[in-house]
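Researcher: Structure for this, please.
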Amino acid sequence: MVMMKQRVTDEDIKKRLEKVKCKLAIMSGKGGVGKSTVTSLLAIHFAKKGHSVGIFDADFLGPSIPKIFGVEKKRPVLREDGIEPVYSDRYGIRIMSIQFFLPSRESPVIWRGPLIAGVMRDFLGRTNWGELDYLLFDLPPGTGDAPLTVLQEVKPEGVVVVTAPQDLTAMIVEKSIKMAESLETAVVGLVENMSYYECPQCGHREYIFGKGKGGELSAKYRIPFFVEIPIDPNLTKLADMGKIEAYETDFFEFFEL
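Model: Predicted structure, token format:
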């Protein structure tokens, strides 16, 4: 594990992020709704528009960004002045994840919350992001130590919340929206993942898990951007193959900060 010999300070973190124009946190109170997929698609959206983009995989217990981008076998360059992130192959998206420092892809991180928060601060205080237009933080589910550390230490310009159509998911996701509000962080977008299935032959949309929950949340909290992402076997296949950058559909076409 990479740890600093000296304790990371708030000034260290501020210095590492000073050349990042916009910081966005992608979060959800519920696990399994596709936060990492949404983070990846959003990063690709910005990169396609010519922006420089980075992803901080803040889900230490279930890191998946390296797998999705097919960079699991790459390793960050360790320098005396910090850590150089890994670059994705197609768009050069800069990626930092705890997964790069584990002995194998199957190795678990069995840590309590305070240790996760401490190591996360270590990464924040050491990673050389350089000049970035966007830095996305893929947060773990819930409203615990890791999301709290990012929202308090990084102070992102906005939060994108990910939900799914089921009633239970919407109820739990609402806690994330309220967490962001309590920390005075703007919720700038709501994404309903696995929203519907569209028949590739006839174009008919079937809302398998029901319709309207994401739209209701977006209206209730006056969230400016709302998008539905369908169940798409091709997207799942490309993510499993580590080739998500080859996915062509842009669900965030009108999203810009």
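Researcher: Any notable elements?
Model: The mean pLDDT is 93. Helices lie at 10-17, 35-48, 65-69, 113-126, 145-153, 167-182, 213-220, 233-241.
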